[in-house]
Specification:
globular; single chain; mainly alpha; 17 helices
């Protein structure tokens, strides 16, 4: 029965990520049919990412008194209702309001799923259970983006959101029926703990580098549909959705973090190599060809997931105290970068085009590489 519960929770992780990212490839379509600006269309993604930047700081207080089962049942019921409303809405203001509401419950869903898995798994299976969860979130990010584009071409943009709503209602009912009630104790950080963690140079270097990584990641994924629409001459949901196919490499990387770090002769080297691959991908994306962009995006995903996965493992391994708060701050820096990246660089794309936009992102990646270089020097000094 426990294995079946885990399968349901993994499906919940996939579904939550589908709900998060399904509108992203459709943003040029929304720009056209709602007669809004690129900036307004980009806010559909920003609205989801922004609350995640603060969730790890505040959710320990919010969820302390509620059983995680009730949280998940309630969250997926709201997901179901909000997705159906999203599919029926015609007003930009209503659509954005729904995304903002979802943005505030997505952290509860992801926190709840991961916490339930970590508390239910046996100690010997915990690492593989969490690894599977990470793999499912990556798969969900691809599935949501790809299917929303694919089904838009076949049945119109509303269809997939109806499907997500129905699935969320079904999952809510299933969780209510089968999931045992357990209490969780989430981390409630204090200001002095946060200051202590931020006073460690290693943490600052990794946090700043990963801020830049997610800034560039979301900037690219948010602007890419608009650039593809320009290249293709019209909106093509299937082709735009297919551009996220390389996302799947993240599943492979998430299960091979230790091997990658060993192959690169240490985690810091692996993070540095990941960022260098990331930088090369941005250079390749300057070639305005659908085929070249598709291949470049596979390189892009590989570099970003390699840097992110190894950095996550490294910061957790090195945290000798307040590991939960350290991990929470890492997530906050990550999603803060993503939230800003989802709309700020879009102004550059609007004003100066794809080439200037990518060149600016190259500068951000170079700054991240600088922080990893500082990290490497810091760790060498600690050894000697």
């Amino acid at each position: 029965m426990k294995n079946f519960n885990f399968l349901i929770l993994y499906f919940c992780a996939v579904l939550a990520m589908c709900i998060m990212y399904a509108p992203q490839p459709l943003q040029p379509h929304f720009e056209q049919i709602l007669e809004i600006s690129k900036f307004k269309a980009s806010l559909f993604t920003t609205a989801i990412l922004a609350p995640l930047a603060f969730a790890s700081i505040i959710y320990g207080y919010i969820l302390e008194k509620i059983s995680i089962k009730n949280v998940l049942v309630g969250v997926f019921f709201v997901f179901g209702a909000s997705e159906i409303c999203f599919a029926l809405a015609d007003s930009y203001e209503i659509l954005l309001t729904i995304r903002i509401i979802q943005g505030f419950i997505v952290p509860a869903a992801l926190t709840g799923i991961m916490s339930y898995i970590s508390q239910s798994a046996n100690k010997q299976n915990l690492a593989s259970a969490i690894g599977a969860y990470v793999g499912m979130t990556i798969a969900g990010g691809f599935i949501g983006r790809f299917l929303s584009g694919f089904f838009t071409d076949l049945f119109g943009w509303r269809f997939f959101f109806f499907v997500l709503g129905a699935l969320a209602f079904g999952v809510s009912a299933l969780l209510y029926k089968i999931l045992p009630v357990i209490k969780i104790s989430l981390v409630k950080p204090k200001i002095r703990n946060i200051a202590q963690i931020l006073s460690i140079p290693r943490n600052i270097y990794i946090f700043c580098a990963i801020f830049g990584m997610c800034f560039v990641f979301q900037a690219t994924l948010n602007v890419l549909p608009f650039e593809l629409k320009r290249l293709l001459g019209e909106f093509n949901g299937s082709k735009i959705g297919f551009m996220y196919f390389g996302y799947i490499v993240g599943v492979f990387i998430s299960f091979n973090v230790a091997r990658i770090a060993n192959f690169c002769k240490g985690p810091t080297n692996a993070i540095m190599i990941g960022f260098l691959i990331y930088f090369i991908a941005l250079l390749l994306l300057h070639v305005e060809s659908f085929g070249v962009i598709f291949g470049s995006m596979i390189v892009f995903y590989f570099g970003s997931f390699m840097a992110h996965s190894v950095a996550t493992a490294h910061v957790n391994k090195k945290a000798t105290a307040h590991k939960g708060i350290t991990n929470g701050l890492y997530i906050s820096f990550y999603y803060c970068g993503g939230a800003l990246g989802s709309f700020v660089p879009g102004f550059l794309y609007d004003s100066f085009g794809w080439g200037a936009f990518l060149s600016a992102l190259c500068v951000v990646v170079m700054a991240s590489i600088f922080f990893i270089w500082k990290l490497k020097r810091y760790e060498l000094r600690k050894i000697h």
